[in-house]
Amino acid sequence: MSDDHPMREKIGVSAALTTPFDDTGAIDWPRFTAHAKRLLQTDIRVVTAFGTTGEGVSISASARASLFEHAAGAGIEAGSLVECVYGPSSQDAGDHARRSLDAGCAGILLTPPFYFKQPTEEGVYRWFAEVLERAGSASRDVILYNIPGLTGVRIGPGLVTRLRLAFPQAIAGVKDSSGDWQQTAALLAEHRDLAILVGHEGDLARAARAGASGSISGLANFAPELIAKLVRGEDELLIDNILDRLLKLPVVPAVKAVLAATTGDPAWSRVRAPLVPVQDTDGLRPCEEISLLVQDWLASASGRTTQRAG
């Protein structure tokens, strides 16, 4: 377990794509692919589909099944996509993982089982093992998704070690969205050679300095350049300003409201039940403020770059 996994270089900055919906609630594939292409022309190397920010758990497997077909039709290579895979059935998750990997995706973001609460580490290990065995020889480039605030399951260094020993060709990294610095530091201490991807942007710069390789970030939907700076290990006070506003709101609808304000396209505000859109003034105002803060920061950064070039 000493050589760095190639996933460390593959991901870097990935946007946890928001999913646009049309007025019937179906995935708006033209908006989806246009947004992904736009991000892939910035500092983004890989985009992640149907994660938490993408409301993937609220979208049926059949609705998601044409992801790679739509991406190819828009000129997006499968190798530019990570797809988030959910259970809670290990059989369903294994079949989904195999389909995504067979399509040529960059990797899968594998969410732990989330229905039965407080499972033992042994039970979680067995569930992941069943998924990977079901996926079979296709198993590769698996990023374990540690988001205990939503799943109720903690993926600690010991569990990662067990899975790496049992499936050495499959485990590529961990996305740590715990927001717990001690948890992040523990993963870095024991698994620095994997792609440790930090979901909480407030910890991202110091995590990068400690050896984290990147981030799968919801904020990268509207501020990819800012997230790229943090991934380089450079502090930026703007991130605290953004998070101070954003975390007072339901995060996924707020990210979509910021994107709607940034693009001038109100369709981005649509969400799937059980979420509801940000609508009242107290919610929309901070989202609009975030959009303006990012645009001002980009203009300032562009001005500094121009001055240096001159």
From TrEMBL:
Top-level taxon: Bacteria
Keyword Lyase assigned: yes
Molecular function in Gene Ontology: 4-hydroxy-tetrahydrodipicolinate synthase activity
Binding site for pyruvate: T53, I216
Keyword Lyase: yes
Sequence intervals crossing the membrane: none
Pfam families (alphabetical): DHDPS (PF00701)
Listed Gene3D superfamilies: Aldolase class I
Keywords on record: Lyase
InterPro entries on file: Aldolase_TIM, DapA-like
Annotated catalytic residues: Y145, K175
Family from the record: Belongs to the DapA family.
PANTHER family according to UniProt: BLR3884 PROTEIN (PTHR12128:SF67), DIHYDRODIPICOLINATE SYNTHASE (PTHR12128)
Name under which the protein is recorded: Dihydrodipicolinate synthetase
Species the sequence originates in: Mesorhizobium opportunistum (strain LMG 24607 / HAMBI 3007 / WSM2075)
